[in-house]
Every structure is written in C-alpha cells, then in structure tokens.
TrEMBL record:
A Pfam family per the record: Aminotran_5
Source superkingdom: Bacteria
Molecular function terms from GO: glycine binding; glycine dehydrogenase (decarboxylating) activity; pyridoxal phosphate binding
Keywords: Oxidoreductase, Pyridoxal phosphate
EC number: 1.4.4.2
Aminotransferase class V domain residues: 173-292
GO biological process: glycine decarboxylation via glycine cleavage system
Catalysed reactions, as listed in the record: N(6)-[(R)-lipoyl]-L-lysyl-[glycine-cleavage complex H protein] + glycine + H(+) = N(6)-[(R)-S(8)-aminomethyldihydrolipoyl]-L-lysyl-[glycine-cleavage complex H protein] + CO2
Function: The glycine cleavage system catalyzes the degradation of glycine. The P protein binds the alpha-amino group of glycine through its pyridoxal phosphate cofactor; CO(2) is released and the remaining methylamine moiety is then transferred to the lipoamide cofactor of the H protein.
GO cellular component, one term: cytosol
Gene name linked to the record: gcvPB
Lineage of source species: Bacteria, Pseudomonadati, Pseudomonadota, Alphaproteobacteria, Sphingomonadales
The protein, known as: glycine dehydrogenase (aminomethyl-transferring)
Length: 521
C-alpha cells in the first residue's frame, strides 16, 4: 500500500522489496464488478413477505477473483511470524513446537467431525479421550478432580476462584479478599476482581519470591485465599509454596495456583503435594497445543478433594454399565448437587484435548519429565550466556526455571528495552516479552522452551549480544529499529488508544491518525 511503508519496500516502484511483499487492505483491492463465482441472474420479483427487506443499495463488499483472494491472504500470512518460522521467545507464553502427530490425531474424523449435541452413544471414543486426559492431568498434578470445560488460562482461573467461593459459602464463611503477589500475571487480579473479591498485593522478597512473612501477617478471617503463580513470572520456583499453603489453610483460606508455567515442573513436582486447592493448566502451553493470535486455548482446572464437589458442569462420568456419559444438569445425587454451575455452553475444546493427550502419550511420563528438564536447561543456558551483557536481577539467587529475566539496568542512557526488542525483529526473531513482570525495571523475559536446539539458542544469543553491544557503542540506528520490517516503529500506544477500525469514509472518527502518521518513524 506504500502509504505507511518506510522500510526497504518504499524504494521500489511496486512497493515490494525482493520477495517481501506489500499488501493493500482488501477494501482497497476489491473494485466492484468482478467476482470469483457465477451467480444466477437476480430474480426480478421478490416474494411479497420479504419485499420490504429487499436491498436497495449495493452491499459494498470488496469483490475479488479467486486468485486475487488467495494471493491476498497468502501475502498477509507472510507478514506474520510463527513458531513454524523461528523461535518465539515470549516469556510466560510457552510458545513451543506443536508436533505434527498432534495435528494428524486431531483431524481424525471421529474427533474432528463430531457435534456437541450428538447422541452420547455415538461419541464414546471422544469421551474416552477426555476421560484419559483428565486422568493424566490428575496424576501429573496429584489432585483429586479436574474441570475440563474452561476455554483458556484466564477462564480456568475464574473456574477455580468460583469453586473456592462456592466452598467458602457452603460452609457459611463468605470472605472478601484475595491476596495476589506483586509479580502476578495480570489475569490473576482481574479474575479475583471479576469474581467479586477485593484484591490486595503481597510484596516480593529481594530474590523475586513471595514474602512469606508479609503474607502471614496479612492473613485473617477476611481473606478467602491467595492466587500464586508457581513457577512465578520472574521464572523462579516459589520454594515456600508448602509453607504458604499451610499458613493460608490455617487461617481458613484456600490456595489457587496459577499453573500456566507448569511446563517447567511437569513430571517433577505435583502441586497437590504443595497444598494447592485449585490450579489451571494451559494445555496450549505445557501440552503443546498451538496458540497465539486468539486461537483456541484450553484451561482445565485441577481441584483438591475439598473443592471437587463444587466443580462446574458439564463433566464426563462413567456409569454402572461402563459407558461414559456427559453430566449436564445439577440435581440428582450423582450430579454434584454442590456444583457452582456452568461456565460454557458445551463441554470443551475437543481439538485441544486430542492434541494434548497425543502429546502426553507420545512422550510418556519419562518424556514429560525430560520436557521440564530441557526447558529449564535451555532457559539457564540463555541466562548464563547473556548475564554478562544484560543485567540479570535474580541470577545470583541460583538457577532459573523455564524463563530468563533481564532488566534494562545495563543499557546505556537513551537506550531502552524497546530498542532491543525492535532490534530483534531486524535480526529475524520475534521479540521476547517486554516490560513484564513489573517488579523489574524494563523487564525482558525470555522463554526458549525445550523445543529449541542449542544451535538455535546460539543464534538468538548472538543476536542479543550484538544488539546489546550496538546500544553500548551508542549506535543511534537502533533507536529507530526495525529497519527491515514492512512497517517501522509504530506509535503503539496511539494505535491501541485510537484504533482505526474503518479504513476510510464516514466511520473514521475525527482526529484518528492516518496509517502514515502512526507508521512513520
Ligand atoms: C498465559 C498465562 C495466563 C493466561 O492464560 P490464557 O490462556 O492466555 O488466558 C495466566 N497466567 C500466566 C502466568 C500465564 O502465563
């Protein structure tokens, strides 16, 4: 489209540079009067009952031929970065390779082509997958039960907190406060607030962990529970987890663990042994089902014996005859009379379940344990390779878990975390997570996962060293990186605060920046 392009493409007549192809918006491409298919002539007479709905003006949709439509979306897809192109070192996100075996299994018609309202006798195999997966999740976590229906990590958090609230209310002890550590993932306080709790922070110690004494001091009859991420978002294991759980239980509260980082400890640590009452597992992180860009996730929640009776419906149960049934209603005795209710219309993400179980069965328990070991090894390799170049605030406190955390402390005046992240785009990498967690200034959180090879990590490390060296040498060009991407440095705040949702014409609110305004650098 030329307009916003200030990268290399701006220098050519076509707007493309080599095989890096520019692409206009579909509305700019599609004139009227072309079509990819032959429609019948419009019938002249509209049925009287529909006449008043007959369209008087053109629909104003872009019209493209089939090759134009195919090229449009293929060109757009090439402007995207994907785990199938290179490493995705986003800390806290566990962007690992999705083995193709997972895809083959998920596409089997018995899993891919079924409908949630099909008679139960016709989907026994799918129920069996859900049941086996549930079994693995309980075994791996040392927990009593699992709610399979939550659709993502944050949805799982809500499920766990609603179960905690139902259990407290059932014993006539509604409480108002949920304690959350400073380093918590943003979804934790959001979940607690959404469930109607007041959120209070627990401070961190100097070595990046929950301050146990501060937590003990705050516990009391108003505290419903805590939400603790373990391993935490500084990439560190909460060594005091059992003591935290014991203290919370002694004060009458319950323990929610954010298990999104389970990748670092799967097969090594069972959260049930640490006194956890509820924990979500991101199948789309630990168990390799693909994610990103709002794609399907799945956040099953494992529950302790105490919380199991409050699990949401629906769930799968085996009846006396050995058949698997979906329990859809509360009421009857076997139907969890204490369930807190229903969170989703249907049961869950069949495709994600099939991929996760495939991943588990193809790795076995020993393989899953090695996943955790290799993920931790890779993160420590990154940490130790870069700690001389970038400030690593918790490196002295011992090894990290699945992710390596750096701050901007060693960057010279005038250079920022953002410059390193944008420089990585020129180097051909997706940037790491930046400015999170908030407990570290200018945080750079790198999670390589176990699926990167040593050679791949070495390439990433070499790029990081080069970018840091350029900043230290005062290379001003780094401040306007990326230089080789189709778009240069965007005003991201402005784009987020004033999103341009219509490309031209009446819908554009006054004062909306044009593409060239936010695209110029
Ligand atoms: C990813 C993540 C979540 C949220 O999971 P979603 O599936 O994105 O809703 C929560 N907590 C932590 C620590 C995470 O990394």
């Amino acid at each position: 489209m030329g307009e916003g392009g200030t990268g290399p493409a701006a220098k050519t007549a076509s707007g493309d540079a080599g095989l890096a192809l520019e692409e206009a918006l579909i509305f700019e491409l599609g004139g009227t009067g072309k079509c990819g298919v032959d429609f019948d002539e419009e019938p002249g007479d509209v049925s009287p009952s529909l006449a008043k709905f007959a369209r008087k003006a053109p629909v104003d949709l872009p019209s493209l031929t089939e090759p134009e439509a195919v090229r449009h979306y293929t060109r757009l897809s090439r402007q995207n970065y994907a785990i199938d192109l290179g490493p995705f070192p986003l800390g806290s996100c566990t962007m690992k390779h999705n083995p193709r075996l997972n895809e083959a299994m998920a596409r089997l018609p018995g899993f891919a082509d079924i409908h949630p309202l099909q008679p139960m006798d016709t989907v026994q195999g799918a129920f069996e997958v859900i049941e086996q997966l549930a079994n693995w999740l309980c075994k791996l976590t040392g927990m009593e039960a699992v709610a399979m229906s939550p659709k993502a990590g944050a949805h799982g958090e809500l499920c766990g907190i609603l179960a905690i609230r139902a259990a407290l209310e059932a014993r006539g002890d509604a409480r108002e406060v949920i304690l959350v550590p400073e380093s918590a993932h943003g979804t934790n306080p959001a979940t607690a607030a959404f469930a109607g709790y007041r959120v209070e922070n627990i401070p961190a110690t100097k070595d990046g962990r929950v301050n146990l004494q501060a937590l003990r001091d705050r516990l009391g009859p108003d505290v419903a529970g805590v939400m603790i991420t373990n391993p935490n978002t500084c990439g560190l294991f909460e060594r005091d987890m059992k003591a935290i759980s014991d203290a919370v239980h002694a004060a009458g509260g319950l323990v929610y663990c954010d298990g999104a980082n389970f990748n670092a400890i799967v097969g090594k640590v069972r959260p049930g042994d640490l006194g956890v009452d509820a924990m979500h597992i991101n199948l789309h992180k630990t168990f390799s089902t693909p994610h990103g860009g709002g794609g399907p996730g799945s956040g099953p929640v494992v529950l302790s014996e105490l919380l199991a009776p409050f699990a949401p419906i629906p769930f799968v149960r085996r009846d006396e005859k050995g058949r698997l049934r979906m329990v859809e209603e509360r009421g009857a005795k076997e139907h969890l009379p204490q369930t807190f209710g229903r969170m989703t219309a249907f049961h869950g993400q069949m495709g994600m379940f099939t991929r996760a179980l495939t991943y588990m069965l193809s790795h076995g328990v020993d393989g899953l344990r090695q996943v955790a070991e290799d993920a931790v090894l890779n993160a420590n390799y990154v940490l130790r390779s870069l700690e001389g170049d970038l400030d690593a605030p918790f490196a002295d406190a011992g090894p990290c878990m699945h992710e390596a955390l750096f701050s901007d402390d060693n960057l010279p005046e005038g250079f920022s975390t953002l410059d390193i992240a944008k420089g990585l785009i020129d180097e051909g990498f997706h940037p790491m997570t930046v400015y999170f967690p908030l407990v570290v200034h200018g945080a750079m959180l790198v999670e390589p996962t176990e699926t990167e090879s040593k050679a791949g990590l070495d390439r990433f490390i070499a790029s990081m060293k080069s970018l840091t060296a350029r900043a230290k040498a005062g290379d001003e060009s780094l401040k306007s990186a990326p230089h080789y991407a189709p778009r240069r440095r965007l005003d991201e705040t402005r784009a987020a605060r004033k999103p341009v949702l219509t490309y031209k014409g009446e819908g554009v609110p006054p004062g909306t920046p044009s593409l060239s305004e936010i695209g110029g650098s």
